[in-house]
Write a structure and sequence with these properties.
The strands form three sheets. Strands 1, 2, 3, 4, 5, 6 and 7 form a seven-stranded mixed sheet that branches. A four-stranded antiparallel sheet has the order 11-12-8-13. Helices cover 51% and strands 14% of the residues. The longest helix has 42 residues. A hairpin with a 4-residue loop joins β11 and β12. It contains 17 helices and 13 strands.
């Protein structure tokens, strides 16, 4: 799985485009990182920069951004409305895909250490990266702001987590964290009333509203033992919200920040707004996403709405996204282009052409060309993807068969399993070619000195392992898909049993073809025990695939004859 994190440094300059550009240009100097957004604010004198990529590349880009900000921003001359205490005030990392929050927190500490050691920045870690419980809250860490930083650093209790404990009047300090992805999300209403939009926002947001006796709007405020107003919490955790009127569209909206979409996903927020709006005689007409959203959030929304319809969720990502967009009316105020709104797709747009994105004719032609890649490994993965897709198709058709309505969820689960297989096999098409290119790159490394020879040797061995691991994974996933195919041959839609049979033939071909790649590449691996392990496990997988193929074809032939 691709591993992606996002970095959102906030620099203390929002008025001078030339200074901002010097900082943001640093992102483009790192391969594998994409600058997603630059949002300057004149009143705050602050710019929010957003970029993303694989963790190691993002950390390198963040170091360069913070270094340049320290060079071109003088905090002793800074004034703005937003709290701040450094040239780069905060620098949070956000897990996007393939990275847990715990891993992201560790990356944040690695970044903090590099900023302290290499750039000489005073660094405090907060939120999930905090080294002490009392430093989790950013407001606590930044208390006193820049003007109080010198005094703060003189207090032993506020020794920074990394970097110098002496006051640098030019760069100040930087707070580094790992936090959840924040989604800015607005729900559209068929009213122009800000008051009513606010009422719904108070119903759903975590903070809720001040409790009153009697009438919830005009009744006396209920106060606690400390004399402070008592708050009634709203329905949704990790949601901030307010109602407002958007003159551009002529409608009121519930404007929300979803601060942890694993706790309250977008689709849950949408449905809760619908429920609360209806209770107040108002209808939700659609919604809009401000900024970007992770792919999984959209896929989860698509599955959620399909389940409500009792339909199979094992459909393509494109179909899941379409269902999510239409169900939440994300295209009501303007087109919703997944390539511009989904963070993984935006990042993919910067990469080179992929085999998996070619049409079938082009893939066939590039395979037939004089180039040595793509070759048998990529084609094996492609054939395996076709096999898994056929099994998925039978599951999806079975879930919608008239008279089998009470079994839709059973077949939906099978379709989900098949989709997982064919999606990974599609990824392996390019991974196989990439692993071959990695070997070529390793062989081109210089080998003049002893150190260069050792580095080249180690790189070749590492690349060789990659060239074995990829087809081996193709074997594993293709075998896994055969379990689904067997289920579909036995109990799936009778009219589609031959499709299951063709899927089995494709899957076993993928296993055998990928095993040939494993065999040819282990010859260049010097670790004899690893070679034996690859071959032993590969033979076992190939044997299982052969047995499953015979079993599936026997079932299919029996049904055809019966």
């Amino acid at each position: 799985m691709t591993r992606l994190i996002e970095c959102v440094p906030n620099i203390s300059e929002g008025r001078d485009p030339a200074v901002i550009r010097q900082v943001t240009d640093q992102v483009e100097t790192v391969d594998g990182v994409r600058l997603l957004d630059v949002d300057p604010g004149k009143a705050t004198n602050r710019t929010v920069i957003t970029f993303a990529g694989e963790p190691e590349a993002v950390i390198e880009a963040a170091v360069r951004v913070v270094r340049k900000a320290a060079e071109v921003i003088d905090m002793s001359k800074h004034h703005g409305e937003h709290p701040r205490f450094g040239a780069t005030d905060v620098c949070p990392l956000v897990p996007i895909a393939g990275v847990t929050m715990e891993e992201c927190a560790e990356y944040a500490r690695q970044l903090a250490k590099r900023l302290g050691d290499e750039v000489g920045i005073t660094v405090y870690c907060y939120e999930n990266a905090a080294t002490k419980p009392e430093r989790r809250n950013l407001a606590t860490v930044r208390a006193g702001e820049y003007e109080g930083l010198e005094k703060k650093l003189a207090d032993p209790n506020w020794k920074p987590d990394f970097g110098p404990a002496t006051f640098n009047p030019r760069s100040g300090a930087t707070a580094v964290s790992a936090r959840d992805f924040l989604v800015a999300y607005n729900v559209n209403l068929n009213t122009t009333s800000t008051r009513r939009a606010n009422a719904i926002a108070f119903d759903v947001r975590e903070k809720g509203r001040i409790k009153r006796d009697g009438d919830p709007l005009t009744g006396p405020v209920v106060k606690g033992a400390n004399g402070e107003p008592v708050w009634e919490p709203g329905a949704l955790k990790c949601v901030k919200g307010i109602g407002w009127f958007i003159e551009e569209y002529g409608v009121a909206q519930i404007s929300m920040n979803l601060t942890n979409i694993s706790v309250t996903p977008v689709h849950v927020a949408f449905d809760e707004c619908c429920k609360r709006a209806e209770a107040r005689g108002i209808r939700v007409t659609g919604s809009e996403l401000v900024g970007l959203i992770p792919l999984n959030a959209m896929l989860d929304a698509g599955r959620y709405f399909l389940r409500k319809q009792e339909r199979s969720t094992g459909v393509s990502d494109a179909e899941l996204i379409k269902i999510a967009v239409k169900s939440m009316g994300l295209d009501e105020l303007g087109p919703f282009d997944p390539r511009e709104k989904i963070i993984e797709y935006v990042l993919e747009g910067k990469g080179g052409a992929k085999l998996v994105d070619l049409d079938l004719r082009a893939f066939t032609h590039v395979t037939a060309s004089e180039s040595v890649a793509p070759g048998g490994g990529s084609v094996s993965a492609a054939v395996g993807a076709f096999g898994a897709a056929l099994g998925t198709m039978v599951a999806n058709l079975s879930s919608h068969k008239r008279g089998w309505d009470d079994r839709w969820e059973e077949f939906s689960d099978h379709a989900e399993a098949g989709k997982k297989c064919h999606d990974e096999l599609l990824r392996l098409i390019d991974a196989d070619t990439d692993s071959f290119n990695a070997i070529l790159t390793a062989f081109r490394m210089p080998d003049g000195t002893d150190a260069e020879k050792r580095a080249r040797h180690d790189a070749i061995q590492m690349a060789t392992r990659g060239a074995i691991d990829v087809p081996f994974r193709t074997m594993e996933v293709a075998l896994e898909s055969m379990q689904l195919i067997r289920q579909m041959a036995e109990k799936g839609l009778p009219a589609s049993i031959t499709d299951a049979a063709v899927g089995a033939l494709c899957a076993r071909s993928a296993v055998l073809g990928a095993f040939l790649n494993v065999k040819v590449n282990v010859k260049d691996l010097e670790d004899a025990s690893a070679v034996k392990d690859y071959l032993d496990r590969g033979r076992a997988i190939a044997e299982q695939a052969g047995e499953l193929e015979v079993e599936i074809l026997r079932v299919v032939e029996a049904k055809l004859e019966g």
